[in-house]
Amino acid sequence: MGQRCRETLRVKPTKTAIKEASRKREAILFEIAMGTFDYGQHFPTSKNAIRFGKNKGALVTIEEQLKKWVRKAEKRCQHSTIRDYNSSIYYHLIPNFGHLTLDQFSTAHVYEWLDTINISNKRINNVLGPLRQALKDAYYDGLIDQNPMDRFRYLSPETREPQPFTPDEIDKILVQLDGQCRNLIQFAFWSGLRTSELIALRWQDVDLNSERVHIRTAIVRQREKSTKTVSGLRTIELQPKASEALVSQLTLNPVSERVFHDPTTGKPWLGDHIIRKRIWIPALETAGVTYRNPYQTRHTFASMLLSSGMNPMFVAQQMGHKDWGMIRKVYGRWIPK
Question: Domain Tyr recombinase, which positions (predicted)?
Fold first, then answer.
């Protein structure tokens, strides 16, 4: 036996409307008898359409599926991750694909979109990530027979060669700085921390006696979170120059929870963009050093350790990588033969 359902036709009960309703009922009964009835075709806005419709993908748009997916993602992802997802969804995916229903969408639409944009392959992969996952959920929910994004391969990201600073360049940069600004940049060069980890560093995680620092948190978009990866939770051994920077910093900022402060405000740094604009760019320009972004301090740390003969596994652990595969791939030319 089938299930009895009631649907309302939102029209005025005129004689003509009642006659049309009667005809619709007869057509539905005939289709049921023939086994061709599609609930969604007759009542596409009904809450029962998804439940009983044959072509469920025709009843849900890409926009609706993306919004549903990101609401679920909010329960398990960091705030900064959700912000990136929303950027992709509302600036790229919905404007270009949101009007399509799930059954209309195909990878051809993605290739057409690629012809209209000028962003890196890495950014393209990141933008398409929410779409790929939302359609995966749609497949698991039985809305579509297959995920069309399974046919679209991730684009190969452009390989960016590390551009570490030489010892002479490091000296030229540091001589332009003093106080807390010098301590911050010196520690960055000799610790290999990401900027988000630097500005989140707490004195409670610093052990100067054993010359170790425990990396537990990061600050991304002014919010504290755990480190980028599980392997990012690590303990690093302080190099002499890093230890020197911390000892100096302790005399300037001994009581605050955060190690490094913005000397202009007297408060912890809010983000890497302020450091780049207020400290990094002016120092490099005054020193006459070719510009590289602050992340190159991390590359510099890795290349210095490897060039000095340090075990690649040790360097990987200090950098927060789960194994030394990334070290071999990115810094292979600095590993002594």
Answer: 160-337
